[in-house]
Design brief:
By secondary structure, this protein is an alpha/beta fold. Helices cover 32% and strands 20% of the residues. It has 45 helices and 62 strands. It has a 5-stranded parallel β-sheet with strand order 5-8-12-4-13, sandwiched between helices. A hairpin with a 2-residue loop joins strand 37 and strand 38. Helix 13 runs antiparallel to helix 14.
Length: 1452
């Protein structure tokens, strides 16, 4: 290795004698507010500039030999010493600050290229090292820097000139490349691979020939050409050339990463050929150890060697290319890890390293075992291994007892599911406790630290707090000081978690305690963090809790919603046009937070493009970033050094005798000078927290470059145990989980456990793996007030109506196992009083009163009451903003209104999602009308922007003015904002709505900020005393009565909008609005067309119900809606003379050009008796009549008198029958009968209609009761299909699994009608079993038929068993058991006790083949008789069979 030495003339002597001053005096001790003597100490910054630099024999003079002409702008702008990087722009721990041989080698090469006038390209792995080297070189050579972060939205105007309007005139503003070329600065282009390939070629000629055409018509020309033309032309002729001189010291340093190893665009060959490249490889372990050991104080050398060796091994594994999914472990990750470990030296190495290198979440399972081997090799136990060690130590209880760990929670669920019983939550919690074995202890062991409290600093004027952490083993307390921002409130510092929970309802579980501790450790160590977790897991709530711990006020937490098309301008500065026409740049919330020292939260960082997120890299790693208007943000330390440098120069020029006044004056003027140069400091209290969802194979947003920016913390569904969820619910709602087994919270926790178990076993499409915390808490809050509607609330929150059929069945099964039952019956199908809505106690002028909703049958009705609002004097509209709508209260809509008003009164925002034309708008307007709530309405579309969402233009006196939009008016005045077509809006608008609804925060384009201020916070009206760079920040407090109701179509085809529910659906209380059921829809149509016959309306309802079924099955794409049916019947009501088929064409004429679709529609219409697509000719098809001939006597039988009738002796034994234990089920939902086809469409036949039975099994038997209800027995699965008397609807009663004994024709089960009790009975001859089914009561009772007089009839049968709600038959059948039913007779007989009254009893008679046994079973009396014939008269089966039984008298 070549030894490289560095010598800096004069600067070395000056730095070695810090006490030497320019004026020869000693150090003056004068204390002034705002600055100290160190600010004016020449040793802190070189007072005399160095004259030359020499690196390894390559030297360069730093003294400009001659004046360089300024061809554009003034000389003061051309000379900007504030653009020269300072030494602390590079972090202290960076190896770039340590002048090692590697660093000096890079600097020497750059000095060579600079002397040759060549542009440089530093290429290397992701991270800030390349930028640090470029800045270090500029700092050493005293070069001014223009920095441009490139991204996918960088345009040509960002590289040349941008147009601005000021005072009605158009100006061209130079961009950094042009300024660097004119003033001889170093242009740093970072992110070459992120820029579009058609943008960077505009720099090709500037790089090659130092020429570039500008937008204002002038031409940048090289210094040599410029000087020669100037010498050969007259001043007038030369000025007409419009030339600008490129400074000869202009250089370009490009920074990029290798592609295709990493993600990005490959270099354009013409662009690549113009650079000289240098590979910036990761630093060697010796260099890293030397630099980090000097910068750290509490980190032991052994620990430092461990993590450096591990990092070097991981880098070697990555460079080998054997592990395709291994992310890059950069030097910056190592530096930030060392910074955290320096603050917390006893922190687990695995915990610290996995924050910057979360390989388990990014790598394939087949590859990350190699990484674990590397961890073990260097003595770093992973968190999983650490947890296993802790659990191993805790395997035996302290009392010495043993625990059966083989019994798992999924076993408990499987057993309950097999029995058909509701699972026991207490057993689940106990088994989970045994599986996890004190998770709080495990997490504490893995972290080694635990946050215990916050204290205010000693100086009340200083924004400083002390965060206390307790080390687990030694119980020692570590205090870390944190300097907050301008909105920091040490007076609200937290003494404990409990004191905070009294102000905000946040429950700290063991998982949250570990996460909060680790995040706080990173934040106080100066690292920005990223929290990754599924939506609804409480990431935002955790951040607000952490903000309160660190002392940030509510207004000091700025939440920015990220979206897919977000650009770097949206993140940094937005271009706005003022009322006078001037164009300006407005600071974004992120930059405002950086200046004021706030906590900024970027919610949804996974939606950002990689190039947009990479723009933030200098702000995150260096706390410096250039802005689009030419402003620059620098670290607080650099700002102080720049201010001190300018103040010292001003102090040299000041001839005042009063040194103290001169210093004060110089210090103030120095700040004004920096502000005039648009240099602002990043407040040391600024922190950035980003929130994102876990990466997926389709969206791997967590790349190696993203890993170099943050410390990552994961919050997954699996981490939060059921025990912790129970603790959260118990502490928030006061529900004793293990005791109150029937509570709503208990049922929801059971359902959550079932969801997780179902996800681990097999994934059901559309169902989540678990309920998020947001959903769990929201459903618990709703269910405590309205427990009877919990089933519908869960189904709506999961969009159960739109799930695939298989997933719908899984959801119903899980809800049943959780003990969450559906409402007894649809309100439209219940006999009795129809549901009603009435307003009670309302004042006609001021409204008020209550809304009373009564639903259900007479005996099981429920009444809910909801308060109405009283009118407020809002100054605009008043009562006129309350909607009035034509609305008919059909049963299903009354039920929906009840649920919507229940959520609305609980303070929830509503989301109504469904197909088109199902009445979403009418339902909302009707609810607001009932509750007397004022409404603001806005409709979104694909061109909706955030600006149009918040302001609307108007023309007043010839001047365009911007007025508040309905959204702002609703927020200010506490109205309801109805957002129609929410799924049609772009994602950025959707994300803004998420911030407004969930976080209560929204930024407007005019600089105002909507903020929901919680209890105890002041309510500013229009302005705040604190000021940002652009003036006073205006806060609009959100009115507590403000609500947002979003209307959206269902996701997926044929609707072409965004998936609104997937993005922010869980922030709302979701209500699925479907087409009404047939009975409700018939009532609705009858209200619109009272003169039309009900049979016709019913046929139309059944027709469209059949079409909707075809849409669900994928046979049709267009979902026909209620709106179209209402329009049809309104036409038919008005113009009765029009033909039905012609009227239907008003809806179906759209489909006339699709022959395949038209054929399907015609087939569906024909099934319902509507001749669509048929000729209108009608025929009658009857059989011909024929007269029968006269009867002829063919045969005559006569009885012989010598023979008497045969009397057979019998032996009768009475037996008492005791029914076995049966089961009961909830009434299954009614289904529409499919494929019902009318037989009399265009002709008359005896066939009225026919329909198909939807089943995968075989039909075994069927029977019909006198009221025309039909029952069909199916073998697989063993069930009964019950059809109503009109055969429009049916439901399925599941009785068991597939029956394996139905092959023999003689042994087929029989379905017997019992019309006297409206029941049916199933006789299974192979097992001598009679199963009595009561469809109305929902019960099944098995009865074992005795086959001998000695059989114990009241003992449980060995031929079958009942398990849950299923019947299981024995596999081994004795051949003597076989019984055959005689006839399905319902026998009428006289009551022997009375002679006047006649009673009817149901009896069945059975006989046994190859035997003389007859069994008579009286179902009504629950008794049986065994009748045995005398052995003398026993015949073979071929001789006789029992054919008919009748009873002449009751005793015979």
């Amino acid at each position: 290795r070549m030894d490289v030495a560095v010598r800096r003339v004069d600067f070395v002597l000056r730095s070695l004698n810090p006490s030497l001053r320019a004026d020869g005096t000693g150090v003056v001790s004068v204390a002034l507010a705002g600055h100290t003597d160190a600010d004016f100490d020449e040793s802190s910054d070189f007072f005399e500039e160095p004259t030359a630099i020499d690196i390894g024999g390559v030297s360069m003079s730093l003294v400009k030999t001659g004046s360089t002409p300024v061809t554009d702008g003034d000389a003061e702008a051309a000379s900007s010493p504030d653009l020269v990087p300072l030494q602390d722009i590079v972090p202290l721990m960076s190896p770039v600050r340590f002048e090692s041989q590697e660093v000096l080698g890079h600097l020497r090469w750059m000095l060579q290229k600079d002397k040759l006038g060549q542009d440089m390209f530093l290429i290397g792995p992701p991270g800030p090292t390349r930028r640090w080297l470029a800045l270090r070189y500029c700092e050493a050579t005293k070069k001014e820097v223009e920095y441009v972060p490139l991204s996918g939205d960088t345009t040509e105007s960002d590289l040349k000139q941008r147009r601005e309007i000021r005072g009605g005139n158009l100006y061209y503003i130079h961009m950094p490349p042009v300024r660097a070329a004119l003033y001889g600065r170093i242009l740093i282009l970072e992110g070459i691979e992120k820029c579009e390939r058609n943008v960077l070629p505009v720099l090709n000629n500037l790089l090659e020939n130092r020429e570039m055409m500008l937008e204002d018509g002038r031409l940048l020309t090289s210094a040599t050409r410029y000087d020669s033309l100037q010498a050969s032309h007259s001043p007038e002729a030369f000025a007409s050339l419009n030339l600008l001189r490129v400074h000869p010291d202009f250089r370009v340093i490009a920074l990029g990463i290798p592609v295709p190893r990493y993600i990005g665009n490959s270099l354009d060959p013409p662009l690549r050929s113009r650079f000289q490249a240098r590979d910036i490889a990761p630093f060697s372990p010796s260099t890293l150890f030397a630099s980090l050991s000097q910068a750290t104080h509490n980190l032991s050398p052994d620990t430092l060697q461990q993590i450096i060796a591990l990092a070097h091994t991981l880098q070697t594994m990555e460079s080998s290319g054997l592990l395709a999914t291994l992310p890059h472990f950069g030097d910056n990750a190592l530096i930030s890890t060392a910074a955290v470990l320096d603050q917390f030296p006893l922190l687990s190495l695995a915990s610290a390293i996995e924050r910057v290198f979360p390989y388990r979440y990014l790598m394939d399972k087949s590859e990350f075992n190699a990484v674990q081997v590397a961890f073990e090799r260097f003595g770093v136990a992973t968190t999983h291994q650490k947890a296993a060690e802790v659990l191993a130590r805790l395997d035996q209880p302290s009392d010495g007892s043993t625990t059966d760990r083989n019994i798992r929670s999924d076993t408990v669920i499987a057993e309950a599911e097999a029995k058909g019983e509701v699972i026991d939550l207490g057993q689940l919690l106990e088994h989970e406790r045994l599986e996890r074995q004190q998770p709080h202890y495990c997490f504490t062991q893995m972290q080694n630290y635990r946050y215990i409290g916050t204290k205010a600093g000693g100086d009340p004027t200083d924004n400083e707090v002390s965060l206390e952490f307790e080390e687990f083993n030694s119980k020692t307390t570590v205090c870390v000081r944190f300097h907050g921002g301008g909105r920091h409130t040490p007076g609200k510092a937290l003494l404990s978690d409990h004191s905070y929970q009294q102000q905000q309802p946040f429950v700290v579980t063991p998982v949250h305690q570990a996460l909060i501790t680790s995040v706080l450790q990173d934040l106080v160590s100066g690292c920005d963090v990223c929290i990754v977790g599924e939506k609804g897991m409480g990431k935002s709530a955790i951040v607000r809790h952490i903000a309160a711990i660190m002392g940030y006020e509510e207004q000091g937490v700025r939440v920015v919603q990220c979206y897919k098309d977000m650009t770097s301008r949206d993140l940094l500065q937005r271009r706005v046009t003022r009322e006078n026409g001037n164009t300006e740049w407005e600071l974004s919330p992120l930059i405002q937070a950086a200046i004021q020292g706030d906590l900024c939260v970027l919610d949804g960082v996974h939606r950002l493009s990689l190039s947009t997120a990479a723009v933030l890299q200098p702000l995150i790693t260096d706390r410096s970033i250039p802005l689009f208007d030419g402003s620059r943000l620098v670290p607080a330390s650099s700002f102080r050094q720049l201010r001190a440098r300018i103040a010292k120069r001003l102090l040299k020029k000041d001839k005042s005798d009063n040194l103290q006044e001169a210093r004060t004056r110089a210090w103030s003027e120095a700040k004004r000078d920096l502000v005039s140069r648009r240099v602002f400091k990043v407040h040391p209290g600024f922190r950035l927290v980003v929130l994102g969802q876990p990466p997926t194979s389709k969206h791997p947003w967590l790349t190696s470059e993203m890993l170099s920016l943050f410390h990552f913390h994961w919050l997954s569904v699996e981490q939060i145990s059921l025990t912790e969820k129970a603790e959260i619910v118990q502490r928030l709602f006061g529900t004793a989980i293990p005791v109150n087994q029937n509570s709503v919270a208990h049922s929801l926790l059971r359902f959550d456990a079932l969801l997780l178990q179902q996800h681990q076993r097999s994934t059901a499409g559309g169902l989540p793996s678990s309920l998020s915390l947001r959903q769990l808490l929201s459903l618990t809050r709703y269910g405590q007030v309205y427990p009877h509607a919990l089933y519908d609330a869960i189904e709506s929150s999961l969009l159960g109506r739109f799930l695939p059929p298989q997933s719908q069945e899984v959801l119903e099964r899980l809800l049943r196992l959780a003990g969450i039952m559906q409402r007894s019956a649809p309100e439209s199908a219940v006999a009795g009083t129809p549901p009603t809505i009435e307003i009670v106690g309302a004042d006609p002028q001021y409204e008020g009163g209550i809304v009373r909703v009564r639903t259900g049958a007479d005996l099981t009705s429920t009444t809910d009451e909801f308060p109405r609002r009283k009118l407020r004097d809002t100054g605009s509209g008043g009562k006129g903003r309350i909607p009035k709508v034509l609305f008919y209260d059909i049963p299903v809509h009354v039920s929906l209104l009840r649920d919507m008003m229940a959520d609305f009164t609980l303070g929830r925002h509503l989301l109504l999602i469904g197909n088109q034309g199902v009445g979403k708008n009418k339902l909302v307007d009707r609810m607001l009308e009932l509750l007397a709530v004022e409404r603001e309405y806005i409709q979104l579309h694909r061109d909706t922007t955030v600006q149009s969402l918040t302001s609307s233009p108007s023309l007043e006196g010839g001047v365009v003015t911007w007025q508040d939009s309905p959204l702002i008016n609703a927020v200010i005045n506490g109205r309801v904002l109805v957002v129609d077509e929410a799924d049609k809006a772009p994602l950025e608008v959707v994300c803004v709505l998420k911030g407004l609804v969930e976080d209560g925060e929204m930024y407007l384009n005019d600089g105002r900020r909507i903020l929901r201020l919680l209890g105890g916070s002041p309510l500013p009206t229009h302005s705040n005393s604190r000021s940002s760079k652009r003036g006073k920040e205006t806060i609009i407090p959100m009115h507590p009565d403000f609500r947002l109701i979003a209307l959206a179509n269902r996701p997926g085809f044929p609707f072409l909008g965004n998936d609104f529910f997937r993005e922010i659906g869980d922030c709302f209380s979701c209500h699925v609005i479907d087409n009404p059921d047939v009975l409700s829809e018939q009532a609705l149509l009858q209200s619109y067309a009272p003169s039309l016959p009900s049979s016709l309306l019913r046929r139309l309802s059944l027709l469209f119900a059949d079409l909707r079924k075809s849409v669900d099955e994928g046979l049709l794409s267009y979902p026909y809606s209620t709106r179209e049916r209402v329009n049809l019947v309104r036409h038919m009501e008005k113009y009765k003379e029009d033909n039905l088929v012609q009227t239907l064409e008003n809806v179906f004429a759209f489909d006339v050009f699709d022959s395949q679709l038209r054929t399907h529609l015609a087939h569906t219409f024909n099934r319902h008796g509507i001749p669509l697509g048929r000729s209108l000719s009608f025929s009658v098809s009857l059989g011909s009549e024929a007269r029968l001939p006269a009867p002829l006597l063919v045969e005559k039988w006569m009885a012989r008198h010598e023979y008497r009738s045969l009397t057979i002796p019998i032996h009768t034994v009475p037996l008492n029958i005791k029914s076995q234990r049966g089961w009961k089920w909830q009434q299954p939902p009614m289904r529409n009968v499919r494929e019902r086809t009318e037989g009399r469409i265009d002709r008359f036949t005896e066939l009225k209609y026919f329909f198909h039975i939807e089943t995968e099994g075989d039909v075994i038997d069927m029977t019909v009761l006198p009221d025309n209800t039909t029952y069909v027995l199916i073998n697989s699965p063993f069930s009964i299909h019950c059809f109503n008397k009109t055969h429009d609807f049916y439901h399925v009663i599941e009785l068991g699994e597939s029956m394996p004994f139905f092959s023999s024709a003689g042994a087929r089960p029989a379905l017997v009608p019992l019309p006297l009790s409206n029941r049916v009975a199933i006789f299974i001859p192979t097992h001598a079993l009679l199963l009595i089914i009561d469809p109305a009561a929902g019960t099944a009772t098995p009865v074992a038929i005795p086959t001998s007089a000695t059989e114990e009839s009241n003992s449980p049968s060995k031929m079958f068993s009942v398990f849950g709600t299923k019947l299981y038959l024995a596999m081994h059948i004795p051949r003597t058991v076989m019984l055959t039913i005689v006839d399905d007779l319902v026998l009428s007989q006289l009551d022997p006790d009375t002679t006047t009254n006649t009673t009817r009893q149901e009896e069945l008679v059975f006989y046994q083949r190859n035997s003389n046994l007859i069994v008579r079973f009286n179902i009504s009396a629950d008794s049986a008789h065994i009748v045995r014939l005398a052995d003398t008269y026993r015949y073979s089966t071929d001789d006789w069979k029992l054919s008919r039984v009748f009873f002449p008298r009751p005793d015979i």
